[in-house]
User: What shape does this take?
Amino acid sequence: MASPSDVHVPSRVPAAGPRPRHPSTVDGPGPEADLPRIVPRRHTGRALTAAAALLLLAMAVHSVVRNRAFQWEVVGRHFTTAAVLDGLLLTLWLTAVVMVLGFLLGTPLAVMRLSANPVLRALSWGYVWIFRSTPLLVQLLFWFNIGALYPTLGLGVPFGPEFVTVTTVNLLGPTLTAVIGLTLHEAAYAAEVVRGGILSVDVGQTEAAQALGIGRRRTLRRIVVPQAMRSIVPTAGNMLIGTLKGTSIVSVLAVHDLLYSVQLVYNQTYQVIPLLMVATLWYIAVTTVLSAGQFYVERHYARGSARALPPTPVQRLRSRLAALRARSATVTPRRG
Assistant: This one.
């Protein structure tokens, strides 16, 4: 029987001679060369659908560009004329004023709608109900002819004597009438937008603020409204673009906006289509700028909720270029 001393235990010391190198340092292809190459799946239907869509788009663009009825030389000649630019400035001014005044009036209406006071809730609901139920054109024509109902407007004691009276026709011109009509109309929608944004905030936020002893006004201003902006901004951006296009309806009141300025020109030259294209291109350009601004505003208010902010168009372009460079570097064989 062998004793423990007779058992030979192999030593962990490596034998003399060169040590084997790591497979990555060995000359020639390593074990990775034997792995099968991963081929991405081919989406034949997707490629055919994209090709058909691009073909239809190319046909539509070709028909628009090569159609002489559009008279693109006339479009280019009137695109930056003084009359068109003045109408564009009035359209932008009218849009900005109506949006600001609409939300200044709509925000208190939304707070009234959420109030515990039944009278305030009823008044807010009635305002929204009336102005959302009436077409905008009817409202503008009503305010334009308000002098037939109230020839004079006065300031004085309620149900008593008046100290100052003004003739309504001299007070309300076409531009002021358009501002009043559009503002009252937009305020009804702004109230619902703000109310929906406030209701989107979790009730626990308000309860936590009350537990800390924060007042209701400060809770609404510092806690609820900043979080509600995530829901308010997208809808408000759509309202802004809709208001920009909706200002064209004030042309029925002879307000010199963009559309009315274009109409004055083609009523003299009878070039209807090219002048309408001038207005269309300006509306598209301004809407594009507003859409880009809406994206960055939404991205700003998404900082508190999203783990990672959505990439900007410039960042997306850089990432795609980097991916294309990396793909070309892996496909192109190295020399030497």
